[in-house]
Amino acid sequence: MVDSTLVSPICSLSEIPDGGTLLVPYGVSEEGLPREAILWRQGAEVRAYLNECKHLPIPLAFEADSIVADDKVHLICLTHGALYRFGDGRCVTGPCRGDHLDRLQIRVEGDAIFWA
Ligand code: FES
Fold it and tell me: Within a 10 A sphere around the Cβ of 106, how many other Cβ atoms?
């Protein structure tokens, strides 16, 4: 078991706007390209997904402000408009309907968010 006092948090909960997202670095792809994680907050709940569309292996968006759909309850891929829901990352409309974003495991301790 990893001692969380020795591991730096990704960020604090309060750094993610309620109903919004924060993009953070998440290693590199098999091709050696930098990847990002989307931290998406709804109240006290936070989900983390790889910022990569299931239709084509490209980011949903490059800006945290544009990745939440106008309805505020889905993420949107700006390339072809796929919509992914908060709870499980499932695509509900678009060319990859039925697929899921790659969920990343996190844990929240107080106001700090860590990779699980
Ligand atoms: S690349 Fe995301 S919907 Fe087409």
Answer: 16
